[in-house]
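Lab notebook page, bench 4
Experiment: in silico fold of construct C2
Operator: M.H.
Input chain length: 110 residues
Purpose: comparison with the prior construct
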Amino acid sequence: MMSDRDTITFHTNEISEFHMYKLMIGSVIPRPIAWVSTISKGGVLNLAPFSFFTIASRQPPTLMISIGPGVEERKGTEKDTLTNIREAKEFVINMVSRPLGEAMIRSLPT
């Protein structure tokens, strides 16, 4: 990594997947976070926070979430949200209201 007063330059192939994730989520601010709700084929409800959430299109109105593979201690795993979406073919993106803001922040993985 090289730096001067105004610029930090790095090569993405020299950064771990975890550190690239941290760099990306720390760079795009304010970063909206949504709760995505799903239900498993066994009827188990799931509510998960997603920071990779955005507006994809205004016409047609489309929201987007991005679900990547597990990293670090979750490497090789798949989120329950993705499993449930594949099985049930539906999910809900829930916008977090101000009164629920603190609860949403506490639900984020560290």
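Observations: Helices lie at 17-27, 80-88, 101-107. The mean pLDDT is 84.
Next step: discuss at group meeting.
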